[in-house]
Write a structure and sequence with these properties.
2 copies of one chain form a homodimer. The first copy, chain A, has 11 helices and 12 strands. Chain A is α/β, with parallel strands linked by helices. Chain A folds into 2 domains: about 140 residues, 3-Layer(aba) Sandwich (Rossmann fold); about 110 residues, Rossmann fold (3-Layer(aba) Sandwich). In chain A, strands 5-4-2-3-11-12 form a 6-stranded parallel sheet, with helices on both faces. In chain A, α1 links the parallel β2 and β3. The longest helix of chain A has 16 residues. The first copy, chain A, is globular, with a radius of gyration of 17 Å. At the A-B interface, α7 and α8 of A face α7 and α8 of B.
Chain lengths: ~260, ~260
């Protein structure tokens, strides 16, 4: 069976966390064109109400639809957890991919649901219970426990990804899940993959689900990228900060970057 | 000389940090009515561009002007550092007080400018150089050194105000200023007064300028409050989170709280 060709993927996030998804997409699909929209004027989404996040996501998708895109990736767990249905209603002709379902599928396919599954996420994603919902659809018996870890977003953006302070903060959050007997940890925020190495050192036996990587891998298995490998960045505010802080997540050059109004 | 009577103060902040100013105002002026507007839909301001912060501040002040208020306090260092002039232009009949100038006055009046003065603030306040400007107007010879400490905002909102992790993070930021020979530390973000006790324990000989307290004290010296001591809260999003996280800064009940649209 042949996979459909696509030339351009629109990627949307509240700010820079989604750059971890962009980076994985670029690794899996070197030829596809990527247009990334970071809503830096209104980040973070993780502490906002569902209604507000849905409104912001709809506006962001309108911008992406002005470009010739084949699919849209919502590279933000918070927006994925509340806005996917509304976005699908809005974009009948463009497929929408969130970052929650691929992580849930990885848990289920690996049969990592015998023991409780831990989810580390923003306040909004935890409150929404999106990972538990997605996992339960496939495996109703699974037990999902969550820890809101809002501070990790600021820590990731500060560029503190390892060292003693980071280890202590990660331990404080993750230990609360370990006490609930987890064997698998879902990094349920696209900022969090930057801590993967440190978490592996601290908890070598934990199964780690990186939602950035699982999402990109799923898309790369579904489509063949046939573009010119161009990457464009659109931000709604603070272009200079986006370049500086975004470097912690993207690790590549950012040549084509524009300010857009939302 | 008698001080003018006022019945209602409008207090505006990007979210909940300004509640430290509100708390100090309530302590100094038990009778005045306080209307607090927290722009929780769009927090934080500290990572946003001046243009965006000015637009947000103008919109927030429009809401406050719908109420019968006598003065406005901009209880946010970021907004104070970029938007005060624009707000004064907009509100010709209502006095506007920011939180930067009172802190600068305290430094100068105490003659704490012989050694370098350290400022711990958000990225936007540091970039703007607002404390240095305010201090230099009064004392051009003063040397001001700054550290952007964005992570402390998230830490304050997480309710982590003391303990080992907090001490290590505070030390990492403040030591970078200590190495520059500071003797005085300005807490240049209204979130930061919650760390005062921990900072005093870590650095007992440091002069600490708490911009929430100095601002409230200055206003209490300028006006006599003659209201009924009522406190009203307006928020632009996430009412439940505002109550929960706001408790870390306000330490009082929040009975009268409404959602407003900006």
């Amino acid at each position: 069976m042949s996979v459909p060709n696509i030339s351009t993927i629109g990627v949307f996030d509240s700010g820079m966390g989604g750059l971890t998804v962009l980076k994985s997409l670029r690794q899996y699909m070197p030829d596809v064109n990527l247009i990334y929209l970071g809503d830096t004027a209104r980040l973070p989404y993780g502490t906002k109400s569902p209604t507000t996040v849905i409104n912001y996501a709809l506006q962001a998708v309108e911008i992406l639809l002005e470009y010739k895109i084949d699919i849209i990736v919502v590279a933000c767990n918070t927006a994925s957890s509340v806005a996917i249905n509304c976005l699908e209603q809005r974009c009948k002709n463009v497929s929408i991919f969130g970052v929650i379902l691929p992580g849930a599928i990885e848990v289920v396919c690996n049969r990592w649901f015998i023991k409780p599954i831990g989810v580390l996420a923003t306040e909004a994603t935890v409150r929404q219970g999106a990972y538990a919902d997605a996992i339960h659809t496939m495996e109703p018996s699974a037990k999902v426990v969550s820890a809101p870890a809002q501070l990790l977003v600021a820590l990731a953006e500060e560029g503190w990804h390892d060292g003693e302070i980071v280890e202590k903060i990660l331990s404080k959050y993750i230990d609360s899940l370990i006490y609930q007997d987890i064997e698998t940890l879902v990094l349920g925020c696209t900022h969090f993959p930057v801590f993967t190495k440190t978490i592996r050192q601290l908890y070598p036996s934990l199964n780690i689900v990186n939602s950035a990587d699982t999402t990109a891998s799923r898309i790369a298995n579904t489509y063949r990228g046939i573009g010119s490998g161009k990457t464009t960045f659109l931000v709604t505010d603070s272009l200079e900060r986006f370049k500086r802080v975004g470097a912690y997540f993207w690790h590549n050059s950012m040549n084509d970057i524009k300010l857009v109004d939302l």
